[in-house]
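Entry:
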Amino acid sequence: MQAAASENPEMNEGHGGGGDLKKCLKWYDLISYGVGSTVGAGVLVTIGIVAKLDAGPGVLFSFLFAAAACLISAFCYSEFATRIPLSGSAYTFTYVALGEFLGWFIGWNLTLEYCISASAVARGWSSYFQKLIEAFGGELPWWIADQAFKGTDLFSFSPLSALIIALCTVVLLFGVKDSARFNMVMTIINISTILFVIILGAFHVNTDNWHPFLPFGINGSFAGAAVVFFSYIGFDSVTTLAGEVENPTRDLPIGIVGTLMIASVLYVGVSLVLTGMVNYSNLDAQAPLAAAFAHVGLGWAVKIVAIGSVTALTASTLCSLLAQPRIYYQMAKDGLFFARFATLNRRQAPVFGTVFTGIFAAVLAMFLDLNALADMISIGTLLAFSVVCGGVVMARYDDQDLDPSSKVHLSPRRRSWVTRLSLAALLFVFFLFSVGFSFVFKYSNLFPTNVGFILAIVFTGVPLVVITILIFLRPQLSTPRTFACPFVPFTPLLGMLVNTFLIIQLPLGSIYRVLIWSAVGFLIYFAYGIRHSRLNQISPSERINGEE
């Protein structure tokens, strides 16, 4: 299927529909969007939840673990983004490298990453906006303030969250370039606020608050890493704009890695300052930075932090809402999603997808609690990252010509489907043993002796090493001339292992909710997508020739 997709000119026209979007973005626009999307709920809201409930001051390690995992995936994203510079992010990469079915699976679950991320960030915006009003001596009317539902931690009522999403949706309808200017201003204010927190907060750190540094043990930091992982999705949102970048080969790697580096430095700084100002057990989970300055008696700083935080979360909400319609757009161009999502307005913005995303995100933000949203976002993000890492392996060891920049070293004829299937099977078995390896670490306390734990590690770890060697011994058939992920297959396979490890650290309830979400997606695919797929427009002879 993917072979036919890349060979057939008409198919390329459909999947390359990103060319219909206006190419007007540069590397600094990408970093602006990336940082605006990344440095939002993670550093302003989620850091308080994870520090208080999972990791204590060890939240610093949570962010570092998540950053390391993201860096591995960033190399894979950069290779795909320069080889396939189209809108759609992980969906497009998976569609081309692994085929339509897995492409749909990732595209559907990216809704968890972007649309629901906008809902989670809007929840944080609502909390900080209330802090801002209170800092100036005001009080919100009861009918617009956040309201908790009795008897449940999953649902609550937040009309302000829906309001900010509606406002950001209107801004996005003016087109990506106008949105970029708005976002650039927001991001500058965002970074200034975070630097203000780090510099001023450093003078009010009490090092006694860092003891114990790991009150929940190292496993607490691992569990926290899985939750804060969604804080790094900014570099992924950069790739959804690939179809609108003037020079994607140069600018996409700069935007991706630059976003990750800036966010990591800021997260580490805020983690140290926040847990040094306030003991982790006393942190405010909803608006931790503003509450920390109130705790040390700096009321004037509370106002500045609240204003900056509201601005930062506005930018983060905007960026999350920006990415999702472009994934819907590309899926609709491929025939897998409803055709209305491929429509553009006179400003070349995907208008229907933008409005739909805004309404859907607003409803979720109004009724779902932040904790429930954050866990689902992390799973959707990690799944996408894992598949992109596997896609790089498939692309390197398959002589499928993904784009004109690929350099095919052997015969231009494609290998047999049996050879390709054997590689896919190795990757699937690698994923299964990664799950087993991760469970062994998560439930290490259940082993009565160290010997049993070591045997379990050997049983699940040795097959991972063997599969890696088997893939490494195969000849690489396609190497990009632009950006290349280093140390293939070791880097992408390590990315798959780390991402799977973080998924297993999350609560089982969140995993079940994502499985239900995926089942709904499969129903749409088999009821609509598979019947309207542009692949069905390819003649049988072209499909046969593509798989020879």
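The chain is about 70% helix and 0% strand.
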